[in-house]
Amino acid sequence: MLPPVALDLKKDRGLTVEWADGTTSYYSVAYLRRMSPSAEARQLRDEMARNPLTVLPASAAGRGGPLVAESAELVGNYAIRIRFSDGHDTGIYSWAYLREIDPQTPPPSDRAPGG
Description:
Layout: E1 6-10, E2 14-18, E3 24-28, H1 29-34, H2 39-50, E4 69-75, E5 79-84, E6 92-94, H3 95-100
Antiparallel strand pairs: 1-2, 2-3, 4-5, 5-6
C-alpha cells in the first residue's frame, strides 16, 4: 500500500487523506475514534455487535467536552497514530486500514463482482 500524498487533520473536524491514485477520503474525528484499530476498541465493537445494550466504558463517553484529535504522528511509512481528547492513543491507523474503513467506499459485500 502506497502512502498518501497528503494528510490534513482538522483537530475539531476530521482527517482528509489524498491517495496516490487520485482519490480523497475523509474521516470525522468521531468516526476515527469509533473505528480505532486498537485491540480494546475492536473488542468493544465486537461486543456491541453482539449486544446493543453494551455499557460503554467511561473513556468512550468523553471527558466533558467535544471529542477532538489532540495530535497525530506518522508511524514509519505505513501509518498514523492519533491522540484523542478522551485519552485514547493506542490505535495505529495503517494506510491499508484507512482505505478499508473509508466511509465513502461501500463494504466489500456491497461492491460489484470483480471490483
